[in-house]
Amino acid sequence: MTTLKYPLRVNVGFLIHQTIGTSRDVQFEFPQLQLNDLGLSQFKGVARFSRTPQGILAQGDFEGQTTVECVRCLTEFLQPLHTTFSELFAFHNKALTDSGLILPEDGNIDLGPLAREYLLLEVPIRPLCREDCLGLCVECGADLNQGLCEHQAAKSARA
Ligand SMILES: [Zn+2]
Ligand SMILES: [Zn+2]
Questions:
Q1: Looking at the structure, do residues 91 and 106 belong to the same domain, yes or no?
Q2: What gap in Å lies between CA 143 and CA 66, rounded to an integer?
Q3: How far is the CA of 67 from the centre of ligand 2 (A)?
Q4: What would the pLDDT profile of 29-61 be if each residue is shown by its tens digit?
Q5: DSSP code of residue 62
Q6: How many domains, the chain?
Q7: 53 and 80 co-located in one domain
Q8: One domain, residues 157 and 104
Q9: Which structural domain, as residue segments, surrounds residue 118?
Q10: 154 and 103 in a common domain
Q11: What is the per-residue pLDDT for 96?
């Protein structure tokens, strides 16, 4: 588990005085990463920071896995997540962007909150451990992926 307080923070101050179009790629890789309430494993990605006339454009491409519970069989499994996003951190308060992101005075951009927000959108509302998960027996709660219980066996014998 990484203990960095801002694992996805990058100082882009050096880009501010570069010519428009200058960019820099920053790679990230963490075996475990906690973004607020979102726990991730095998996190990796790249962020490209580009100098634009209005500010610094951050383009992220991140992936990782998070633990979710199958809605049918209630087994926990690792759900792969992948997201890409593009957000402008504007130079001035008056240069309002859709997202309202402003480049901080000290040039530190923290992609943590954005990465969390975008990756959460990729978490399925009804996760399934596999497409054809058989779920649990409504009578005894047996996990039918492990084999049929007596109730289900009786049912399929009748069918
Ligand atoms: Zn399942
Ligand atoms: Zn049963």
A1: yes
A2: 22
A3: 27
A4: 999 999 999 999 999 999 999 999 999 999 999
A5: E
A6: 2
A7: yes
A8: no
A9: 9-128
A10: no
A11: 62
Say if residues 111 and 89 touch (Cβ distance below 8 Å). Answer: no
d(CA 157, CA 142): 18
Ligand 1 center to 125 CA (angstroms): 14
Q: For 68-117, how does the pLDDT look when each residue is reduced to its tens digit (9 = 90+)? A: 999 999 999 999 999 999 999 998 766 566 678 999 989 999 999 999 99
Distance, CA 21 to ligand 1 centroid (Å)?
48
Looking at all shown ligands, the one closest to residue 149's CA atom is: 2
82 CA distance to ligand 1 middle (Å): 21
Distances from the Cα of 26 to the Cα of 70, 90, 96, 151, angstroms: 34, 19, 26, 56
Joined tokens for residue 48: 């490209």
Q: Where are the alpha helices (DSSP H) in the chain?
A: 13-16, 112-121, 150-158
Structure tokens at 101: 């992101």
Length of the chain: 159
